[in-house]
Amino acid sequence: MDPAAVERTVIPHSEYLTHAKVVTASAVGVDDSVVLTSVGRAVAYDFLVIATGRMCNRPEKREDRLRMFEHDKVRIAAAESVLIVGGGPIGVELAAEIVMGSPDKRVTIVHGGPRLLMVMGEKASAKALEWLRSKNVTVLLDQTVDLDAGSGVSPDDKVFTTSAGETVTADCHFVCTGRPVASGWLRESFLGDHVDGDGRLAVDEHLRVGRLRNVFAIGDITDVPEAKQGYLAQRHAMVVSRNLRLLVKGGDGSSREHKLHLYKASKAAITVTLGRRDALSELPFMTVIGHLPGAVKPRDLFISRTRRMMGLKLSARHDQSMFRI
Ligand SMILES: Cc1cc2nc3c(=O)[nH]c(=O)nc-3n(C[C@H](O)[C@H](O)[C@H](O)COP(=O)(O)OP(=O)(O)OC[C@H]3O[C@@H](n4cnc5c(N)ncnc54)[C@H](O)[C@@H]3O)c2cc1C
C-alpha cells in the first residue's frame, strides 16, 4: 500500500471524537457501573458499549504505526521470496498485492485448511486458488508452520518447515492467521457468563448483552451470526447509538423497550482485493473475480468514504513528509 494512503488510515481518536473524553488504556475489568483500566483509572458509566473486537499488538503511537508500515514495505521490497502463513482474506490480499506489484518475487502461502478463504464459499476458494497459481504463487494447503518451535521465531529466519515436512525458503515472512477476540478481560467479570467458547459476547436483537438494560456490544466481539466485517460493525454502531438516544431520553420503561431498534444479521457481501485492479467478490447470488469486482471496490479501499463519515478532511492533516512517495 502506498505510504500516503497508509497515513490517511492511521487516525488518532481525538481527531474525530471531538466531543468525547478519550482514555488511552486497556480495559482490564468491569462491574455493573465501573470499567477499570490498565492505568489504574476507574471510569464510571451509565451505559456501556463493548467494542474491543480483536486482540491487537500494534504500536500505540501514530508515528510508530506509520514506521511499522514503512518497515514492512522495505522488508518486502528487499525480499526475493516471501512466505505468508495463513490463507484467509488477509493472507490472500497480501500475496496478491505483492505479486501484482513485483511479479518476479517468489510468494508462498502455507494454509492450515483444505481451501483458501474459508470464510467464503467453495467457489470463491477455487477462484482465488486458480488466480494465485496463475500468478505463480505457491499455495500449500492443509499444512501449517509452527512459528513457536524453531523456524519463524525471529524475523530474520529464512528456512521454514511445514507440518507435512516441506521446506520453504523465504527472505521474509508474514503471519496472517487472524487474531483472537479480545474478551479475556470480561471472562472473570459479571459479564463472563455471556462470553461463549469462541470468546464472543452473546447479544440480543437490540445488541444488548444478556438483556442487561445498559450494556451493549458491537463489532467483531459479538456473536451475531454473520461475517465479521467493518461495514457491519458500523451498522451495529448505528443501531446502538439510536437505542442509546432512546434510553437516555427516558420516559416510561416498557414503551421504551418496544421502541428499541432491532439488528438483523446480514448475509454479507465479501470482497477480497487482488492487487490494485482485480478483486474477488462473493455476492448472495454469484461469485465473481477480475477487473469488474475490482472496479466496484474503490482503489482507495473506502479510506475516503470512511474519513468523510468521520467528519475528517480527505487527506491526513499531519505532516509526515518522511512517508510521502
Ligand atoms: C487486514 C484486515 C482487512 C480487513 N478488510 C476489511 C474490508 O475490506 N472490509 C470490511 O468490511 N472489513 C474488513 N476487515 C474486518 C474489519 O476490520 C473488522 O470487522 C472491524 O475492524 C471490526 O471492528 P471492531 O471495532 O469490532 O474491532 P477492532 O477493529 O478489532 O477494534 C477493537 C479495538 O479495541 C481495542 N481493544 C482490544 N481490547 C481492548 C481492551 N481490553 N481495552 C481497550 N481497548 C481494547 C483494540 O486494540 C482495537 O483497537 C478487515 C480486517 C483486517 C484485519
From TrEMBL:
All copies of domain FAD/NAD(P)-binding, residue ranges: 34-226
Record protein name field: FAD/NAD(P)-binding domain-containing protein
Pfam hit, one: Pyr_redox_2
Its job: Putative FAD-dependent oxidoreductase.
GO molecular function: electron-transferring-flavoprotein dehydrogenase activity; flavin adenine dinucleotide binding
Entries under InterPro entries matching the protein: FAD/NAD-bd_sf, FAD/NAD-binding_dom
Domain of life of the native organism: Eukaryota
